[in-house]
């Protein structure tokens, strides 16, 4: 565990990661210089958006990324550490679990697209470990496009997923 804690500390410092509201730590690594005018975006967007953004996202096994949704498609990229268990609840209420990690011969994937406005949450699969991934959003991410799930509201919307919603929400 000492090596893992040292690696987490190293990555947090070296990559200048900060706490993320959904859980874990992040650092924006890219924001395009050009923007898309608000008039060219769907009505859900208020204001213009950058073409794309990208972050590092570090999650440890003593926490989880709570259910949330964003207005953009988000591509997850696996870098190192434990595989990540990612849960998606689609707009029509279907639940999908996908493993993002290095073992593609075992069905894991290096990249995964979370479609816009789908609820999603994740956790590190191995105990006493961490996962370092990247997330790319297009159009570019803005916290105005971010919604954190509230347990009761999400359970009311998808009662058949109460167990997974309870496991991946804080309030």
Over all CA atoms, what is the radius of gyration? 16 Å
Structural class: alpha+beta
Q: Helical content, roughly?
A: 10-25%
Mean of residue pLDDT values: 97
Strand content is: 35-45%
List how many beta strands DSSP finds: 13
Spatially, the strands of the biggest sheet line up as 1-2-5-12-7-10
Helix count equals 3
Form type: globular
User: Secondary-structure element sequence?
Assistant: HEEEEEEEEEEEEEHH
Largest sheet: 6 strands, antiparallel
Span from first to last CA? 30 Å
Weakly predicted, low-confidence segments? none
Describe the overall structure.
This protein has 171 residues and is of the alpha+beta class. The chain has helices at 2-14, 151-157, 162-167, and strands at residues 18-19, 25-31, 35-36, 49-50, 53-60, 65-70, 73-81, 84-89, 95-100, 111-114, 119-124, 130-138, 146-148. The protein has 3 helices and 13 strands. It has a 6-stranded antiparallel sheet with strand order 1-2-5-12-7-10, with helices on one face. A 5-stranded antiparallel sheet has the order 9-8-11-6-13, with no helix packed on it. A two-stranded antiparallel ribbon has the order 3-4. Strand 8 and strand 9 (95-100) form a beta hairpin. It is globular. It starts with a helix and ends with a helix. The model has no long low-confidence stretch (mean pLDDT 97).
């Amino acid at each position: 565990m000492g090596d893992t804690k040292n690696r987490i500390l190293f990555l947090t410092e070296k990559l200048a990661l900060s706490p993320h509201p959904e859980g874990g730590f992040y650092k924006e690594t890219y924001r395009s210089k050009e923007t898309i005018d608000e008039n060219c975006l769907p009505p859900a967007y208020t204001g213009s958006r950058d073409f794309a953004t990208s972050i590092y996202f570090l999650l440890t096994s003593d926490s989880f990324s709570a259910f949330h949704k964003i207005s953009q498609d988000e591509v997850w990229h696996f870098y190192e550490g434990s595989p990540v268990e990612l849960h998606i609840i689609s707009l029509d209420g279907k639940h999908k679990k996908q493993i993002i990690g290095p073992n593609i011969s075992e069905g894991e994937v290096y990249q995964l697209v979370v479609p816009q406005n789908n609820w999603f949450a994740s956790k590190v699969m191995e105990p006493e470990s961490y996962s370092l991934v990247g997330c790319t959003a297009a159009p570019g991410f803005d916290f105005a496009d971010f919604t954190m799930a509230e347990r009761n509201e999400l359970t009311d919307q998808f009662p058949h997923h109460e167990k997974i919603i309870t496991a991946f929400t804080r309030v």
